[in-house]
Amino acid sequence: MKPKVFITRQIPENDIKIIEKFYEVEIWNDPKAPPRDVLLEKIRDVDALVTLVTDKVNEELLENAPKLRIIAQYAVGYDNIDIDAATRRGIYVTNTPGVLTDATADLAFALLLAVARRIVEADTFVRSGEWKKSDVGWHPLMFLGYGLKGKTLGIIGFGRIGQALARRAKGFGMKIIYYSRTRKTEAEKEIGAEYVDFETLLKESDFISLHVPLTKETYHMIGERELKLMKPNAILINTSRGAVVDTNALIKALKEKWIAGAGLDVFEEEPYYNEELFKLKNVVLAPHIGSATYEAREGMAELVAKNLIAFAKG
Ligand code: NAD
To answer: Which residues form the D-isomer specific 2-hydroxyacid dehydrogenase NAD-binding domain (predicted)?
Structure first.
């Protein structure tokens, strides 16, 4: 008899077919995450679970999962999973590193450009008819933003995505400084980046982009103190995890102009709604779409399938 897997969201059909060779597959076809009671019910009877970052895998869920042997996360970050609780029960946890690196670095850079050049504000201005209505037509002081060439980009977390972002920024003539838990001397030399301490990075960067995983150490790593150390022209980009930044402190910083703007793909709670933040013009927001390219999502599904099959084969 084949082991059973529950997949909490739609993934590409090809990969489901591959997984079906080894598993009896059940998929939650709704675009929204399965409600908690559904997940708690489904988990009772499965050997494997495919999860996304919004599926909370904690003690409560695992206590209801007597047969569960593997959790295959459809993402690189796995802060939604209580790894200790899984390990105690001998449950394997896999993720999908590497295949979404370029997509996420592209999005971080897209947000950086969008905030720096006020693209969303400008788009709204044109679409709303304000441009046509205004008698200015075109004014040399309209929608002024920040240039990138010669500016300093500070990267926090110099792993796969952080380094991929650095390579992109080099092409735009930016100076790269980084702070990471461990120094990456080879990547530093190859890319042309300089290692600095955390405070120096905060004080010297014109743009700061976050690429650390969410852990106890990185939770609210950017709070009031850190935002106050940043330059008034600094733009903060977060495509890592929402809780790396203290949102209330960020809103205060944006309102009181301690920093110039922010581009956010991730939020402390997801899905997210916050009128106070959404009213601010100097932020560009995205609904956690860092890895949302056809290429990355296919790569992630392939890896999930490979991980499940490797496990099934022992
Ligand atoms: P990675 O493991 O290659 O890089 C993470 C880097 O952070 C490492 O260099 C590590 O040394 C550093 N780091 C860890 N803890 C630190 C700390 N306390 N202080 C300073 N540096 C620290 O991971 P990656 O593939 O580059 O992904 C990074 C994160 O991006 C993921 O964990 C995930 O949360 C997030 N992510 C988001 C999306 C999205 O859709 N927005 C997509 C992919 C990944």
So the answer is: 109-290
175 three-state secondary structure: strand
Taking the CA atoms of 121, 126, 128 and 129 in sequence, report the sign of the dihedral they define: positive
> Counting atoms of ligand 1 from 1, which one is nearest the CA of 198?
20
Separation between Cα atoms, residue 51 and residue 33, nearest integer Å: 9
Catalytic residue among 9, 160, 211, 288: 288
Find, among 18, 291, 258, the residue nearest to 164 by Cα. Answer: 291
pLDDT at 314: 87
CA of 251 to the centre of ligand 1 (A): 23
Q: Is 99 helix (H, G, I), strand (E, B) or coil?
A: coil
Specify the pTM. Answer: 0.96
Which of 82, 96, 255 shows the shortest CA–CA distance to 160? 96
The arrangement of strands across the sheet holding 235-238 comes to 193-195, 175-179, 152-156, 207-210, 235-238, 261-264, 283-285
Instruction: Give every residue of the chain whose pLDDT is below 50, as ranges.
Output: none
For residue 97, give both structure tokens: 């590193």
Cα angle, residue 130 at apex, residues 116 and 281 outer, rounded to 5°: 35
Active-site residue identified among 20, 63, 199, 270? 270
The ipTM value here is: 0.99
Tell me if 52 sits within 8 A of 74, measured CB to CB: yes
Element (H, E) at 202: helix 198-204
Between the CA of 54 and the centroid of ligand 1 the distance, in Å, is: 17
* C-alpha–C-alpha distance, residues 15 and 154, integer Å: 38
* Minimal-distance CA residue to ligand 1 atom 19: 181
Eight-class DSSP state of 180:
-
Contacts of 45 (CB under 8 A, 6+ apart): 4, 67
Q: Among 241, 268, 269, 302, which one carries the catalytic annotation? A: 241
139 part of the active site? no
